[in-house]
Amino acid sequence: MEHKPEKAKKSKTTSMGTPKNFLVPIMLLHLRDWNSHGYELMEKIMQFGIESVDQGNFYRLLRQLEKDALVTSEWDVTSGGPAKRIYSITEAGEQYLEMWAGSLSHYQKMLDQFFNLYNPFFSPFRSASQTKNDDD
């Protein structure tokens, strides 16, 4: 019988605090400025740059945010057709968003330092057209 090496047990790695669910602060950010139906919110998030949003998970996440008192919803029966929920951010949601903004600001500083060390001449914010113009 051939002896196979045991797979190394997954050790607990120290989390560096990397954002695990970036969708939540993006949702709250959009709700901060306007109340929205779920579908409208999903469209805005995709316009923001999230390439694909699983509709089922999205609505489960909205319901969880409501359970956590970060958002609230009301039924909109004023428009024609079936009633739709309108979501709004709560004060607790605003505080949670502020916490994320502070955390992301810290990550931005670390990313800037990383790119400065990685390549001092690399600027992640320069567009390809700027680079091409610099080469002319």
Automatic annotation (TrEMBL):
Pfam families: PadR. Coiled coil: none annotated. InterPro entries: Metal_resp_DNA-bind_regulator, Tscrpt_reg_PadR_N, Tscrpt_rep_PHB_PhaQ, WH-like_DNA-bd_sf, WH_DNA-bd_sf. It comes from the Bacteria. Signal peptide: none annotated. Residues 28-98 form the Transcription regulator PadR N-terminal domain. Transmembrane segments: none annotated. PANTHER family: PADR-FAMILY TRANSCRIPTIONAL REGULATOR, TRANSCRIPTIONAL REGULATOR RV3488. This is Poly-beta-hydroxybutyrate-responsive repressor. It comes from Lysinibacillus xylanilyticus. The gene is phaQ.
